[in-house]
Amino acid sequence: MSDSSTTKYLLDESQLSEAWYNVQADLPTPLPPPLHPGTGQPIGPEDLAPLFPMELIKQEVSQERYIEIPRAVQDVYRLWRPTPLYRARRLEKALDLPERVKIFYKYEGVNPSGSHKPNTAVPQAYYNKQEGTARITTETGAGQWGSSLAMACAFFGIDLKVYMVKISYAQKPYRRAMMETWGAECVPSPSMDTNAGRAILAADPDSTGSLGIAISEAVEDAATREDTKYSLGSVLNHVLMHQTVIGQEAIKQLEMADAEPDVIIGCAGGGSNFAGLVLPFMPAKFAGSKTRIVAVEPAACPTLTKGVFAYDFGDTAGMTPLLKMHTLGHTFMPAGIHAGGLRYHGMAPLVSHLYDLGYLEAQAVKQVAAFEAAITFARSEGIIPAPEPTHAIRVAIDEALLAKEAGEARTILFNLSGHGAVDMAAYDTFLSGSLQDYEHPDEAIEEAKTHIPVVG
Amino acid sequence: MSDSSTTKYLLDESQLSEAWYNVQADLPTPLPPPLHPGTGQPIGPEDLAPLFPMELIKQEVSQERYIEIPRAVQDVYRLWRPTPLYRARRLEKALDLPERVKIFYKYEGVNPSGSHKPNTAVPQAYYNKQEGTARITTETGAGQWGSSLAMACAFFGIDLKVYMVKISYAQKPYRRAMMETWGAECVPSPSMDTNAGRAILAADPDSTGSLGIAISEAVEDAATREDTKYSLGSVLNHVLMHQTVIGQEAIKQLEMADAEPDVIIGCAGGGSNFAGLVLPFMPAKFAGSKTRIVAVEPAACPTLTKGVFAYDFGDTAGMTPLLKMHTLGHTFMPAGIHAGGLRYHGMAPLVSHLYDLGYLEAQAVKQVAAFEAAITFARSEGIIPAPEPTHAIRVAIDEALLAKEAGEARTILFNLSGHGAVDMAAYDTFLSGSLQDYEHPDEAIEEAKTHIPVVG
After folding, report:
1. Residue B235 Cα, gap to closest chain A Cα (Å)
2. Does the complex come out with an ipTM higher than 0.90?
3. Is the C or the N end of chain A the one with fewer CB within 10 Å?
4. How far apart are CA B106 and CA B247, in angstroms?
């Protein structure tokens, strides 16, 4: 299948994954459990039942290595999966790389919402439908998650209300229009529709919102209505597990290309696209593989590189269970970078745990350097990346250039988690020369960390 | 390959077309030639040489049935081709169709610019590069063409200047940003950069521009600079021929699905996506096939249904050769519907000729009805269509419902020429209830026709 001009590695539909990979089965040490914020004790399924369908609660704590993907979910996946793996030959040429340095990328932008998010939106909508949920609430930042869940809820006939971070609601009207096109209701958060929103607005009528606030609103809405469940697009174990179709496909496609990655790269906000690519490579890593695995976060929200590994809330108002994760503190308000999907104060517990155990590396990248890489990529490979994966591209290019300079062979794989067609305002800002880098002063980060609750 | 749940028909890369299909070889009566606007005589290659590379001039008049696709062009096509053919099972279910009524669609939105336009942008950039062109000019309306050519010029290292219809330049900043991301220069038309633009602005400083004006500017720019050629995204024979990869693939994919279309539908502005799908079906049609072939145009620009078949200019200023085509008159200014790609006063000579010979049908559709169909489509199939193919979807749904009502079997194929991610403002207008239908009064259309030059 692979010759010197092959650029695209496609799998047949019959090679679609039949099960998600659950890394919990293989962890060298188990994941610290989520704790009840009132009692400080590990939470049980009954604590989560008001928010999630039981099947997802089971998946959250399952120790089974593989969990079967239901046929109805596979039928939707098959509308666009398996997704392509590309050898970035045109980028390699633009960088004047020697043949011993190779760049591959897995492209998750080929579905109608344009990112990896439907990989979990679809099963979440499915299990809710199975258990009789009539209505779902969720939050969204830049809108990739909200629009993906809107599409999934349209497929399964479920009502959806999306609390969209107010500044994104104003800046990204196209994403809101996508959600509405798929039939969802979308309101700017903080809103007057919840106690959490009203309290924030009473204290600060001009609040532009945050993911943490929007989560508080969506959780409150779901917790207080019998017909409604809540859905989260990242962070939780079951969400990351649904994304493992990415890495499972990539492994088969790299075999077609007769390639073994030396370094695997993904951008990381909540951690789901990163985990989706890298978790299926973890069994080899646990067994001693020398492949490096690099999470790339924005310098404006350096959860892994500057946060602490501690129990913290998932939301701003402190309504969620406490999760053991790398965090900057649940009140940390990241600067308004264009990669809205990477603006989260915490990091998925699974990713945090693997990082703490030393299996992962992390790098922080500034957005101007990320967009420079994205322009090089777009002009060679064609695809205009979403702002989030521009961070992964920056590190992939740096890795390639370092290997070239060092005279080493290196095979690089990164996740191109989505396209940027709905994010062109960010490119406009960059091309006009007015894009700014943001870094929070260390004192601000240290101050935010003082709000992390002290647990046991 | 086909069973009761198959929704996506994919071809292997090895089944990529190796040649474009040139319908001129099979026409029952030959195409009327383009005429020189000064002499009224058929133009020769030398007349076109200042504007186009010689290979494209040859293709424009070639009578060869197949023209080989160069390897370098195939290498770019392979980044996203072959494109999928879908059986619209979810839409069929939403419409409660019986099994005897089937809807298929060919989806051309899977490349980075999101429409069918790269099918010709890539070879046009390639042949220009081969013949030493350093710089290309073109016009664009809604921006699908300009952005596709920008991507193609980035691949082959050619400078590009795009004259973008001023009202679209203001309304579609994302499309402009895409062109700039791929390295093109984009200016609003009418501009002060050309005599044509300056003359329009002198007469009407507030002119919002039109495709006809932008063509005048791009042609003048190319004709007056030694290093520059001109490129057109529709209308001309070679452009339509490059698009035939669409229909050639569709024929193979329908075979996989064991299906034969009773009706084939495409939206038609200049005619290129329509021709790309239907021309490969014409040999069967010439041989007596009963398959109906329907061009769908907007009611606001009813070139086939209300225009005349006559020699007319391709641009507003009257700088282009005279083309025998269905036209509303080269000074006709179509209302500002959202399907910017369908706002052209004429229709490709090849499509016009086939329509005149009775091989094609035409229907005009209003935009509110088109967007209603698009919402039904998006909520069932997932993909949010560009405003242009919503017109094709409207007729596809109508055909399906008519067949259902009549108790007939019908297999319907339409071209989904692109996605609408960069056109969400149009959906926003529709969903907010403020989208208007436009129809020009018959008197206005008759007045415009009086400006068609009298030839021969």
Report:
1. 25
2. yes
3. C
4. 9
Output the CA torsion sign for B282, B286, B287, B289: positive
What tokens does B431 get?
């969903």
Give the sign of the dihedral formed by CA B138, CA B144, CA B150, CA B151: negative
In whole angstroms, give the CA distance from residue B25 to residue B30. Answer: 9
**Chain B interface includes A372 (CB < 8 A):** no
User: Nearest-CA neighbor of B62 among B253, B242, B268?
Assistant: B242
CB contact at 8 A, A211 and A219: no
Half-sphere exposure of A385 (CA within 13 A, CB side): 31
Contact yes or no for B424 and A422 at CB 8 A: yes
Q: Does A445 touch chain B (CB under 8 A)?
A: no
For residue A419, give the DSSP letter: B
pLDDT band at B1 (very low <50, low <70, confident <90, very high): very low
A424 contacts B178? CB cut-off 8 A:
yes
Q: Provide the pLDDT confidence category of residue B38 given band limits of 50, 70 and 90.
A: confident
Sort strands A85-87 and A101-107 into parallel, antiparallel or unpaired.
antiparallel
Nearest CA among A268, A289, A286 for reference residue A363: A268
Q: Is A205 on the interface with B (CB under 8 A)?
A: no
Q: Residue written as tokens 């596709």?
A: B148
pLDDT in tens, A217-237: 999 999 999 999 999 999 999
The residues in A 83-102 lying below 8 A from B, measured between CB atoms, are: 86, 90
How far apart CA B289 and CA A127 sit, in angstroms, is 48
Residues of chain A with Cβ-Cβ distance to B384 below 8 Å are 112, 178, 181-182
Asked whether the beta carbons of residue B181 and residue A7 sit closer than 8 angstroms, the reply is: no
pTM for the complete prediction?
A: 0.96
For B407: left if phi > 0, alpha if psi spans -120 to 50, otherwise beta; the answer is left
CB A172 within 8 A of CB A188: no
User: How far does Cα B396 stand from its chain's mean position?
Assistant: 18
d(CA B313, CA B320): 6
Compute the distance between CA of residue A259 and CA of residue A256 in angstroms, rounded to an integer: 8
B425 Cβ under 8 Å from any chain A Cβ = yes
B431 touches chain A (CB under 8 A): yes
Nearest to A13 among B8, B79, B155 (CB): B8
Cα–Cα distance, B367 to B267 (Å, whole number):
12
Query: Cβ(A266)–Cβ(A348) under 8 Å?
Result: no
